């Protein structure tokens, strides 16, 4: 497997014209967790996130940016390989693997592998969630340095501190408490016996560490340290913040900014996003102070749409776990002052799969034909006028979807849901019965794409079946 990976990487990363060290851009990939389409200022919503807005204003804002899955681990698998995760079986959360050995296959080269082979120093700060066993660890998947958590989520901070507002806690399988308790601590619990993060500890490299700072702030701190440490050489920093994924926890520093919001869920979530926005501002300031802003490619997007209380996917329908737009169309922007015009709004559909080839091309290399995305820079700079993609595809167990031009077809609950996104971004009016010929034509395209996929490598962990993820009153099992 390692020989296969090495051969693949030689193809993926062969440098045709690297240039000098000073001309090769740094790359920072910021991948946030469960951020809704209307959780920032990016799309006209009344949410103060000036730094996230500054990042987008300095480059391109994508209004139709998609991820490859509406749940986090599968979405990360697609992002870091540049390939549809169904090609190699990473379709569901790895926690569903019967032997607890689920994870990103070790023979799938990652973007970190590719950047490292391109002579970049590679670092990761944040959430991994691509396998907990030793062979899946980030430092064995191309990252020179790692600080963060291996599993899906954890307590952001000791929830019993007097300066912390904690609406809930991580499940006790992750966050240990001194007395027996339900899997999720009751809101408003007065139990002050928090004993730490348990098995979902924070790690530096492969060593568990104690981290007392609010986790969002700690991830920002470590990212700044990485930039300062490697400012004189090309670097790739992957920064998957956990915010605003549950548990809903925030320090009073951010909470007090939203005293005018009465709903507690909304107030805490807004405060958590405010901490994220501060962190991004600090990272942008660090680039500027080091003279790196002009020649650093910064990408910002969410792993899927919002799914927890206090977040918003408006005007998109549904959210996390579903294949409707609220689950897979996400906040997405890209900034590289040396190459991408500032203030650009790009309306053609783009994919998280495009980040791998965009980063490799920026580093001077050429991705393998197995990588499915495209280098977006020519489309943003105006040298390429055609749309980057004719179709985008999704598969999630028995459910699937395809975007073909402005048509969006979803198959779920053994029926079709067809929408014209040019006139119905909220997916309100199902046109499947009115246009059966469109359903037939697009279905054939999905079936052709699906021939290149394999069966999931492990079963789904579960399914969301609540009324709020039904469509037009039809219950749907959204497996994950």
Tell me briefly what this model is.
This protein is α/β, with parallel strands linked by helices. The protein is built from 11 helices and 20 strands. The longest helix has 26 residues, at 264-289.
Helix and strand topology:
Layout: H1 2-13, E1 26-32, H2 50-57, E2 60-62, E3 65-66, H3 72-81, H4 111-117, E4 121-127, E5 145-149, E6 164-166, E7 202-204, E8 207-209, H5 215-229, E9 235-239, E10 249-251, H6 252-255, H7 264-289, E11 296-302, H8 325-328, E12 332-335, E13 344-346, E14 350-351, H9 355-362, H10 377-381, E15 391-396, E16 399-404, E17 407-412, E18 415-420, H11 436-450, E19 463-464, E20 478-479
Helix pairs in contact: 1-4, 2-7, 5-7
Provide a descriptive summary of the structure in words.
- The protein has 480 residues and is an alpha/beta fold.
- It contains eleven helices and 20 strands.
- The chain has helices at residues 2-13, 50-57, 72-81, 111-117, 215-229, 252-255, 264-289, 325-328, 355-362, 377-381, 436-450, and strands at residues 26-32, 60-62, 65-66, 121-127, 145-149, 164-166, 202-204, 207-209, 235-239, 249-251, 296-302, 332-335, 344-346, 350-351, 391-396, 399-404, 407-412, 415-420, 463-464, 478-479.
- The protein has a ten-stranded mixed beta sheet with strand order 8-7-5-4-9-1-11-12-2-13, sandwiched between helices. A four-stranded antiparallel beta sheet has the order 15-16-17-18, covered by helices on one side.
- Helix 1 crosses helix 4 (111-117), helix 2 packs across helix 7 (264-289) and helix 5 (215-229) runs parallel beside helix 7.
- The radius of gyration is 21 Å and the shape is globular.
